[in-house]
Design brief:
Elements: H1 4-26, E1 43-46, H2 58-66, E2 71-78, E3 84-86, H3 93-96, E4 108-112, E5 117-120, E6 128-130, E7 138-140, H4 149-155, E8 161-165, H5 170-182, E9 189-192, H6 196-205, H7 215-227, E10 239-243, H8 248-251, H9 259-272, H10 275-283, E11 287-291, H11 296-304, E12 309-312, H12 315-324
Parallel strand pairs: 1-2, 1-12, 2-8, 8-9, 10-11, 11-12
Antiparallel strand pairs: 2-3, 4-5, 6-7
């Protein structure tokens, strides 16, 4: 049986830990130097705004930039002839109707005339594509070409770009790093993936480019947050990019979701969407991005919780919301 003196010691220790943890959670710069932010992004266009134009196309990117987006989010793969292209899918069945992998195709297979016209091996996008994060959403457009990453860099030299490295491929990571360095965009780029191994390779390849939290690291941050340890732990990443779990409910048929699944979604949303967590991270200079939100009530929930930015498929809708949001 624990003696009264031992109990007092344990309780005082736990009390001191709780008070210190709470204090540092509110004022993290007492222990950690605030990260220097090279840019701030509130309005982020997912795949360039996949609900208003065909995703990941130059037309989508131009429209989003013209709407005043703070950041373009896009996805990268590498072709057989080692060109970095902007595409969400590695297999093009969904987006082009042709069951072929980007990695098995060359970007160009030849030229006509004196180099005036390149013959593309990559197939064009379909004229209409479903919007992944909007039930019943459909986008269409005339620009069906899969662009090169360097085209995006050249067209938008002053726009921050969020790059999702879609496959664990050392050459892809190296090529993206070289392009970022070539266009002197280290201060305007963030990269990574949900997979821890990819983020680690990105950071090792070029530590001058800030990185996203992987899923593994997001879960670790949550564990540290709920045990009170987060304020004591140094953080390398600068961008906490997370989904809003509750949006799953609108994407699926309500009758297809069981009560247990609804409970798990509610629990995940409750655990992840925490203002105290967002405020702590932003106080340390870490930007918090919530994806992919396409409704005004979702935008409001994210910003009310203290999110730095929202990622959307509808740049126009988010712009209008931000104009009225206070």
């Amino acid at each position: 049986m624990m003696s009264s003196s031992a109990a007092i010691y344990v309780l005082s220790t736990l009390g001191g830990y709780a008070v210190t943890s709470f204090l540092l959670l509110k004022y993290p710069t007492l222990l950690h130097q605030r990260k220097k932010q090279r840019f701030l992004s509130k309005h982020i266009s997912h795949r360039g705004g996949a609900g208003e134009n065909l995703e990941n196309t130059m037309t989508a990117f131009r429209h989003a930039v013209n709407m005043g987006t703070d950041m373009l989010e896009l996805d990268c793969h590498i072709t057989k002839d080692e060109q970095v292209v902007v595409s969400h899918d590695g297999n093009l069945k969904r987006s082009t109707g042709i069951n072929v992998n980007i990695s098995d195709l060359k970007y160009c297979v030849g030229t006509i005339g004196v180099g005036w016209m390149r013959i593309k091996e990559l197939p064009p996008y379909l004229g209409k594509l479903e919007v992944t994060f909007q039930k019943g959403g459909l986008s269409e457009g005339e620009d069906k070409r899969i662009p090169l990453l360097k085209e995006v860099f050249e067209a938008f030299p002053h726009t921050p770009i969020n790059i999702d490295i879609k496959v664990n491929n050392d050459l892809l990571i190296k090529k993206v790093s070289e392009l970022v360095a070539q266009y002197k965009r280290e201060h305007l780029t963030v990269w990574g993936n949900a997979k821890y191994e990819i983020v680690e390779k990105c950071h090792k390849e070029n530590s001058d480019i800030p990185i996203l939290f992987s899923l593994q690291r997001v879960l670790l941050i949550l564990g540290l947050f709920y045990t009170g340890l987060l304020p004591f732990v140094p953080i390398c990443e600068q961008f906490f990019e997370i989904p809003m779990p509750s949006i799953i409910l609108k994407l699926k048929d309500p009758q297809s979701i069981s009560k247990s699944q609804k409970f798990l979604i509610w629990l995940a949303d409750w655990l992840l969407m925490r203002k105290a967590l967002f405020d702590h991270l932003t106080a340390r200079g870490i930007q918090v991005y919530v994806w992919v939100l396409n409704e005004e009530q979702e935008y409001k929930k994210a910003f009310d919780l203290g999110a730095t930015g929202v990622m959307t498929d509808y740049p126009t809708k988010l712009k209008e919301f931000l104009h009225n949001y206070s």
